[in-house]
Amino acid sequence: MQQFLNHWLVLPLLSALRFLAADTACRVGGGLGVLAWRLGIRRRVASAQLESLLGLRGPARARVLKRAYASMGANFIEVMTIGGVYGPERTQTMLNPHWHALLHRRHGGVVYITPHLGAWDVGAGGLVKGAGKLVVYAKAQHNPEVDVYVNTQRQQLGYLVLLVANGDRTAAVTVLRTLRERGSVGLMADQRPGRNEGEGAWFLGRAAHCHQGPAFFAQKMRAMLVPGCCLRVRAG
C-alpha cells in the first residue's frame, strides 16, 4: 500500500512543488507546520521545554511554538523546490563571504555545526562555494522512497549527504578522508545520539546527551570548529 501511495501520490506531489516559487512553497510548508502544532504533534514536549528553559507560558509560549512549527514545515517543503525555476538557492546571500574565503585559505577543511534553527539544508548549500567539497550528516526519513528523493534534492546544492547509522564507520571514514583532502563536513549540533553513544553536557542549564562527532572530527584532524546558521528573511 505504501509503495502504491508513494508512486501515485506522494512522490508526484513532492515533484510538483518544484514549480512553486520558494516563497510560496515555504508559506505552504509553514501552514502544514502550524497544522501539526494545532494537532498537538509533540506539542507537550516542546511546550515543557520552552516553559522550563525560557520561562514562557500562555500566549507568549504559544506564539513561539507556532512560529517554530511553521519554520520546520517551511524547511521541509523548501527542500522540494531546490533545482526548480524559483529554488531557494537563487535568492541566498552569504553575509560574510570574504571571511569565509579567508577561513578556508588559512585552515583548509573545517567542521561546520548548526542547530535545527533557520534553514539548515539550504544553509549547507551556501557553504559549498567557499568550502569546495562538503559532506553533511543527515538522519534517514521514515519513508525510504521519500528519503531517497529528499537527499537527491539536497545534493543538487553541491554537497554529499551521509546518513547517520549506529555502528556504521563508513561515513566517518569518508569524513576523515574529506578533511584530510581539505574538504569540510557539516553536522547538526543538536541531534540525539544513540543510547550507547554520546557525551554528557549542559544545555541552557539542563543536562543533555550530545553527539561527540563534531569534537571528534575537529580534534582528530586538527580542524577548525565553526558554528553557523542560515536565516530566512522572507517565507522563501
Name the strands of the widest sheet in spatial order.
3-2-4-1-7
Low-pLDDT runs of 5+ residues are none
Given the structure, what is the number of helices?
A: 9
How much of the residues is beta strand, in percent? 5-15%
Compute the separation of the termini in Å.
34 Å
User: Which geometry do the CA atoms define?
Assistant: globular
Mean pLDDT over the residues: 89
Q: How big is the Rg?
A: 18 Å
| Percent range of helical residues | 40-55%
N-to-C SSE string, H for helix and E for strand: HHHHHEHEHEHEEEHE
Please report the total strand number as a whole number: 7
- Which class do the helix and strand fractions yield? alpha/beta
Notable traits:
single chain, 236 residues, alpha/beta, five-stranded parallel sheet, two-stranded antiparallel sheet, 9 helices, 7 strands
Could you describe the 3D structure shown?
The structure is a single chain. The chain has helices at 2-16, 22-39, 43-54, 58-79, 97-107, 120-131, 144-155, 170-180, 213-220; strands at 110-114, 134-138, 160-163, 184-188, 199-203, 206-210, 224-227. With 236 residues, the chain is of the alpha/beta class. The chain has a 5-stranded parallel β-sheet, with helices on both faces. The chain has a two-stranded antiparallel sheet with strand order 5-6. Helix 2 (22-39) crosses helix 4. The two termini are 34 Å apart.
